[in-house]
Amino acid sequence: MITQLVALVKKELIQTFRDSRMRFIVLAAPVIQLVVFGYVATTEVKNIKLLLIDYDQSLLSRELGNVIFNSQYFIKVDSREVYGKRPLELLQEGKAKVIVTILRDFSNNIARNSKSEILIQIDGVDANSANIMKNYLKQIINEYLVKKLVNAGTASQLSHYSVPDISIRIWFNPELKSADYMIPGIISQILLIMTALLTALAITREKELGTIEQILVSPMPRAIFILGKTIPFVLVGFIQVLLVLGVARIIFALPIKGNLFFLFFCSIIFLFTTLGLGLFSASVCKTQAQAMLTIFPIAMPAFLLSGFFFPINSIPAILCWIAYFNPLTYFLIIVRGILLKGSTFLDLYRELLVLIIFGVSFIIFSSLRIRKRIS
What we know:
The chain is an alpha/beta fold. The chain contains 15 helices and five strands.
């Protein structure tokens, strides 16, 4: 019995490691997930795009600005993106995450013990990041000003100065509800996994059943076969989006500030990418089980490197570059922009253009490959 058990174990190990896909899943996938999770799964928020508007232009206000930017958390918004834009437009388009406004007579009011304010506006779409950004700024500003005032005189003289009020305005998600941030990500997740997986399973099912040969000898054009296998899952994707939006609206009171027809149009563009992924998987797999094992190792890093859970700007630069080659990154920006900010085509045309390039490239490459394989 021991000999039989050893022989059976040996056979299973040989069969497992003989398959290149299984070698990747067993050996490479855990390492990739460890590296990605280790760098991406962090509660720290860094490289936050901050616009400083200094109406006071005093030594104190300029020093305060330098202290904010010299911290490890905030970076300046590119001046080219600021030109001709209102502050709220920068938040709307995602070119800034925080706007700090120092009012006129800021330093004079502090010295005269008069009321002085610092206005902070935060993009609250990501509730967790918004809370962290708010706490960062309050801590940096308060610590610097108290230290500055103490250095200006003795501790007993500190009572003669007035520490400014910090007025904070949260935009797009004033209640900082995490559900509002996560639900658009869930929509993207459903579209990616379900449409890609169902497309791959539909074609590999034909291979498993042996009916692919009947299709090959039929007068049906290969393009019609591919369209027939993908169009149903476009409809399924739309049904799922409507279902999730309806349930989220009823249960979680999800705000829908933008145009739903624009959202559906963008979803069609994104579906070119997901269907292309499904076709590619079907072209390299012979069984439905293999198709599933191909889709999921791709989907998991795609979610982690899309801004679904963690802000992209907070991850290392090399992973950041990978995230920018991830179509899901741009679709998430689009969905969250439309639903939570009421963004229009003019706000999102860059992301939509990148998504079109990805989608058309994916669908053409995968369609040519699947046609070649079934011919």
